[in-house]
Specification:
Blueprint: E1 17-19, E2 25-28, H1 30-40, E3 44-51, E4 54-62, E5 77-81, H2 85-97, H3 107-111, H4 120-123, H5 127-131, H6 142-148, H7 158-169, H8 186-200, H9 204-216, E6 222-223, E7 237-240, E8 246-249, H10 262-265, E9 267-270, H11 271-282, H12 294-301, E10 305-307, E11 321-323, E12 328-330, E13 339-344, E14 350-356, E15 361-367, H13 371-389
Parallel strand pairs: 2-4
Antiparallel strand pairs: 1-2, 3-4, 3-15, 5-9, 6-9, 7-8, 10-11, 11-12, 12-13, 13-14, 14-15
Helix pairs in contact: 1-13, 2-8, 2-9, 7-8
């Protein structure tokens, strides 16, 4: 997630080898990653590189919980945050391929029969605009955060919660700013998720599980907090207060964003499964499984809107770029071509995805920490691995 405020919720590569799940030898990144992890003081750090349909390097180091000695493994679940958005966009593409919805379908077309008296400007917003953050729906406002945190969450399933959320916001008129129409909108992805649910007749969570997790064999993938209740069986996220105090956030509501926000960013999975997902994207949909047609994946990957310049961007964050559907399209100063990239954080974890479709290469980095240290460390690893393995 990118903008939800937690107001109480908030080149030396190691020579060792690890055996991949495909039976091939993949290079271990543990030695390199441990040095970065120690430098930046992170609890855990994981990364993987794919090339041409294979995971060629991977590593996971550190502890699942700060202050405890519980080593992480390559199969440990990390949180994806807003990297989930590309999955929502891909599910949308699958439904477009099946004729159940169109990129030009509007909120009113799909949800108007369920949500009455919707502001005409909101009703006219298209699925493509929602997925490209160009609808005029703003970045999380206090009103939206109150909606995410509404007590009705204890009374309804997530599908109904999303309809309820839109119903509570329906009188607002989206406003497209001058210059670039881009506004990073989690609420827009919530709305897109509700449209997909209505079009398919299934919850968003099932759509992602059936159409992405299952076909790609992402056995560690799930939704919500990474760890099981009462167990330290995954790297838990860590909250950092204004004084710098670090608190492990183990289970329950405080360990993630509200479930209603799922389409905007509450997936989790291991670094290896995350790499399998980015590798499928790097291949441009030309190798199995067939989740969407290559043409539809190209539509998801192509730039749809220019992003406005960012003043004083965070380390590793370009000051400007473009946005596709669930993916940023970024010209990094250390890469020849524009790359697909996205960051994800729920305020307690950080995940970075980088995809080079020209080279058929991808890099993923994950940590159970957030903030400037996590961003700097993950950006350093991302660039280092891309430059080391790009050929």
């Amino acid at each position: 997630m990118k903008s939800v405020q937690r107001a109480g919720f908030a080149l030396c590569l190691a020579a060792g080898l690890a055996v991949s799940t495909a039976g091939r030898a993949q290079e271990s990144l543990d030695g390199y990653l441990e040095g970065v992890r120690e430098t930046y003081g992170l609890p855990a750090l994981a990364a993987a590189v794919t090339r041409g349909g294979e995971i060629v390097a991977a590593g996971a180091v550190g502890t699942r919980v700060a202050g405890m000695e519980i080593p992480v493994t390559l199969d440990d679940r990390f949180h994806l945050g807003s990297d989930t958005k590309a999955m929502t966009a891909t599910v949308a593409g699958a439904l477009v391929d099946e004729g159940r919805i169109e990129w030009t379908s509007t909120v009113g077309d799909v949800l108007g029969g369920t949500i009455a008296d919707m502001n005409p400007a909101l009703a006219a917003v298209t699925l493509e605009q929602l997925l490209s953050h160009s609808s005029g729906i703003p970045t999380d406002t206090p009103e939206m955060i109150d909606i995410y945190m509404n007590p009705v969450a204890f009374e309804k399933n997530t599908t109904d919660l999303r309809v309820d959320a839109i119903d509570r916001w329906k009188h607002n008129a989206p406003k497209v700013p001058e210059g670039s129409p881009f506004q990073y909108a989690n609420f827009g992805y919530l709305t897109a998720g509700a449209m997909l649910e209505a079009a398919a007749g299934e919850p968003w969570e099932r759509l992602v599980a059936e159409r992405i997790y299952g076909p790609l064999g992402l056995e560690t993938a799930g939704f919500g907090p990474q760890a099981s209740f009462g167990m330290y069986d995954a790297p838990v996220g860590h909250a950092i207060d204004d004084a710098g105090t670090v608190t492990p956030m183990t289970w329950g509501a405080a360990a993630d964003v509200p479930p209603v926000m799922g389409p905007a960013g509450n997936a989790h999975m291991s670094v290896l499964d995350f790499a399998r997902w980015t590798d499928w994207n790097a291949g441009g949909g030309t190798r199995g499984p067939k989740i969407v047609t290559p043409e539809t994946l190209a539509e998801i990957h192509r730039p749809h809107v220019k992003t406005p310049p960012i003043r004083n961007p965070a380390p590793g964050t370009p000051s400007e770029g473009e946005y596709a559907l669930g993916w940023g399209v970024i010209a990094f100063d250390w890469a020849t071509d524009k790359l697909l990239a996205h960051n994800g954080s729920n305020g307690m974890n950080l995940a970075k995805a980088l995809v080079d479709t020209t080279a058929d290469l991808s890099v993923v980095v994950m940590t159970n920490f957030s903030g400037p240290r996590a961003e700097s460390a993950a950006s350093e690893v991302q660039r280092h691995l891309y430059e080391a393995y790009r050929r």
